[in-house]
Amino acid sequence: MKLVLCGKGGSGKSTVAALLAKSLAENGSPVLVVDTDESNFGLHRQLGLDLPQDFTGYYGGKQAVMQRIMEAAPDYGSVSFFEEAWGLADLPASYISEKDGVILVAIGKIHEAGEGCACPMGMLARQFIGNLTLNPGETVIIDTEAGIEHFGRGIEENADAVLMLIDPSFESLRLSEKVLEMARSMDKPVYFILNKVDETSEPLMRENIKEGDRIAAVIPTDADLMGAGLRGEEIATDLSEIRLLGRRLIEDLG
Fold first, then answer.
1. Are strands 215-220 and 31-35 parallel, antiparallel or unpaired?
2. Which residues are CB-neighbours of 78 under 8 A, at least 6 positions away?
């Protein structure tokens, strides 16, 4: 199954991506985490992995990818970076980090001021996700940038479901409505994950979420997770809520 995690900045996308990847990998099948957030330099540390080389480097780097796209103008959609389907075993070793059944690919990062927009990474990410062929039990978890720009880039196009992180904020609640609308237009199921909640915020969030039956997990505020995030350490917390979420996703999506 291919899962896209989204939400506003600071909602906990990368933390939940790491927790879910580690939990699902315990079942014995590999889990690929695809980092499509060009400004996130922390996900690899949460997974206990080195940051791999930008996957754009496989095609000569960001500027080479951009040039290839621009040469196809105005028919940008004709550009294809893959001639045949890949499985997880086909991922180039120089562009992945791996540990305990979790594999990390980082599509590309912004490294220098003035280097241009992230459009090449967006197109490459969409094709990369769509090109992957999975064996039974294998999972792809896609961590996205804050907001909903990834919907415009078509990242969800080849996903099996969208997991929306909602933290205790008005902004997050409103964004969940837009995510639901956009995912529905693509015929993608949506699962809401309430994150960083306590006994006061949870009932208020439930009252203000449309289609509350889509709430698939409620993750309480956790001091250990917060501390690990501040220190840039690997996440070692084992949450029953994450294990239950993983089981539900497997049952629903296979």
1. unpaired
2. 72
Arithmetic mean of pLDDT, 62-66: 88
Question: What's residue 191's pLDDT?
Answer: 97
Q: What is the pLDDT of residues 74-100, one digit of tens each?
A: 777 778 888 889 999 999 999 999 999
- Domain extent for 112: 2-253
Copy the structure tokens of residue 81. 């970076």
pLDDT the model gives residue 15:
94
- pLDDT given for residue 226 in this prediction: 83
In the predicted model, is pLDDT for residue 19 greater than 80? yes
Name the residue among 204, 205, 200, 191 with its Cα closest to residue 253. Answer: 191
Q: What is the CATH number of the domain that holds 185?
A: 3.40.50.300
Omega of the bond prior to 168 within 30 degrees of 0, cis? Answer: no
How far is Cα 155 from Cα 159, in angstroms, rounded to an integer? 8
Q: Domain count of the chain?
A: 1
